[in-house]
Each structure stands twice: as C-alpha cells, then as structure tokens.
# Entry
Amino acid sequence: MYKETSVRSVMKTISWRFLATLTTFSLVWIFTGKIDTALTVGGLEVIIKMIIYFFHERGWNRIKWGRKHIEPFVVWITGLSGSGKTEVARIVTEKLREMKINADHLDGETIRDIFPRTGFSRDEVTRHIERVGLLASRLEKNGVFVVASFISPFSESREFVRSLCNNFIEIHLATPMEYCEKLDHNNLYSRARAGEIRNLAGVDVEYEAPEDPDLILDISRDGIEQTARKVNFYLKKFM
Amino acid sequence: MYKETSVRSVMKTISWRFLATLTTFSLVWIFTGKIDTALTVGGLEVIIKMIIYFFHERGWNRIKWGRKHIEPFVVWITGLSGSGKTEVARIVTEKLREMKINADHLDGETIRDIFPRTGFSRDEVTRHIERVGLLASRLEKNGVFVVASFISPFSESREFVRSLCNNFIEIHLATPMEYCEKLDHNNLYSRARAGEIRNLAGVDVEYEAPEDPDLILDISRDGIEQTARKVNFYLKKFM
# Structure
C-alpha cells in the first residue's frame, strides 16, 4: 500500500510554485510596467504561498471526498477443461491491473499446488471450491478484485461461493466439448478416455452448466483475446 | 479501493485559488498602492492559474515518486487456548486500521466456521493451518496486512506458513497454562480434563512453543491492552 510522504508534498509545492510565480511575475510586470515591483511581489509570493500550499496539500490528504470508491468483485470463470479459462482470466487480470486496479488471479492449477492434498472426488472437489471461495471472498472484502478460473463443475459449490461474495460475477466459458477435446492441452481427455484419470468434467462427471450466468462466451467462436475483451468490457459497468 | 476523481481535483483547484489569489491581490495592492491594478492582476491570475493548477494536479497523480510503499506483513499470534490471542489480535488490527492501514484479522474460531468441515486431529489441524497460511499469504501479496490468531500448536505448520509469507512476524503469547486454565473461557480445559473433547493443546496434545519468535508476551503479566500496545509498538519498525 502507498502513503503520501511529506517529501512528495514538498516537491509538488516547489514544482507548482515555479509555474505559479512565473505567472504572477509576468502579470505584475505587464500591468505595472515595473520589473522591480514584479520581482518584489513575485519574491514574497514564493515564500508566503509555498507555506500556504504545503498546508493546503496536507489538509486535502485528510479529506476523503472525491475519492471514488470502487466496490471490488469476484469474477468467476467456469467451464470445461480446455475451454480457455486460464488464458482468458490472465488477460482479464492484466487489463484490470493496467487500469491501476488491485487484481489477483486465482487459477485451478496453481491453487491446487498450494492448497495441499486435495483429491478429485466429487466431495473433495466441492470442498476445494468452497475453500477457494473463502479465499476469493476474503480478498474481495479486503479490496482485492479477484478473477478466478476453475472448472468448478457443480452448481451447488458455485452457489456457495456466490453466497460468500459481495459482488459475484459468473462467466460461463461454454466452448464446445469437441473443441476442448480436440486441442486436449494436457492430454486430460485422452487419459480420461483411457481410464487413466477419473472425475474429469464432461467425461465421467457431469459438468453442470450455470443456469443464469452473467456472460456466456466461447473461445472457439471469438478466440482468447476477443473473449477476454468482452469480459473486460462487461466489467466496466461495475467500475 | 479509491480513485482520485476529476471533481475532487476541481474542488482542490478552487479552494487553493481562493487562498492564493487573496495573497497575490494583497501583495500587489501593498506594493503598487493601486487597487485597480491589484484587481486586474488578481482577476487574470484566477483564470490562468486555475487552468495550470488543474493540469499540475492531474500530472502529479500519474507520478508514483514520494508515495511511500509499506510492505505488508503477516503477524502470527500463537499460544494456548485462553492465552489472549483473539483479544490482542483484535486490538492490534484496530490500531492498524486507525493508521489507515488495510488490515484483516483471521481468527481461529471464526475461520473454522467458514473453512468447512475441519477436524481436530493432528493431521487435520496441520492442514487447517496450512490453508489459513495460504489465505494469509495471498492477502499479504495483495497488499493486505494480516493479524492471525491461532493456537497453531505445531512448529512444522507454523514454519510452513512462514515459508509462504514474505514478511512473517511470529508472536508467542506465552501466558502460563495455569492462568489460561483458571479463566477457562469456553470451558475447553474442564471438558478436555473430563475427556469430553480431545486434542486440546497443553492437555492431550503438546504445544510446541516457537523457538525464536519475534516477541514473547504474557497477558497474565501485562494485561490485554498493554500486550496489544507492545505488539503495535514492535510493528512500527516494519512501517
């Protein structure tokens, strides 16, 4: 977090004074025609106004008015493995950060590495999503904007997360299964079809599509970049 | 989060201009003796400088220099049940907030209610603390100052949390067992002694005291308020 230091206020005071006194000096010179009066007024102004300006600046730092409060949100991106969640979420997060927004990206894969020992059974996935939801909502409550990309196949656990958050925005990446399976980035589909892994949404676990998501998008139609742009455009209405 | 609106900059511009032009007007009047020259210079100054000031203000809003960056930290308060962790942590968090610091208090009891279905066996407690550590470190990485109050009896899990955080401050509330047990707020000790509950640190599970904590404090000696004050005083060196 950032704090306005006194030194910064001093430097602002000086930069302003230079501009301002130049103006005063010029005006007095023009209207009196006397350079010595202009210099005297300008000189005194430098000293007096620097002092006033410093206190004016510090005073305003204590005033909250006019600092627009933007309510943080949790953008929850759900969809099949390979639907483009991680890539879209990463771009969305970057764009938010470019807008000077304190945003964090929680991603299924990276979070699994750090939330230790979580399995893939229905019960374990549900508990995992519940914990991620707690994490997301706690970040949100502390002013962090969250972009979460999780398969999160079960409606019930998504609704649980919604109930924890103040401002939950659900985005369904409804990229068709055939498209996801054709690319098969991590060979998850082929391994699931071969019976090497279990509980893959869309293969041996049903993916419960959101009933009323805020947005439905599809990277097979729009591509990653355009999909992310649509998300960011939608988010503008919350900012 | 807060954003400096243009309207705020306009209001600052006006309040400053009032003070500044009054000064210029007075100076010109004093040194020329002519009120009409003073009014002309003052009048033109109002218009020209308001414009310059507005852009000066917006320009500085883009400059990062002089905004002091304070690195967030995680204050981890460990100790027996009844050692005063929750109360001390609450006061410490409040004091941080009074200093305009974005601080959050994670407390053993409240977090248990929201991290669902966590048991009290050694393994479950360890996993619970690991998850809380992830939560704390993620908050920290996003600029939130964390005060955590957990019995967290096992060195290993506390060290795991330390490894996740950038700036981990360990505080041992070493209030003597007899004192904690005498007060016995939630009747935990009497119930543990009666065998009604299990895995209470200090009774049937060893409390592994930190080997090299940043602070060792004791509410039986200092009281809650004074203990919290000592914590806040110590934290000043990180701010």
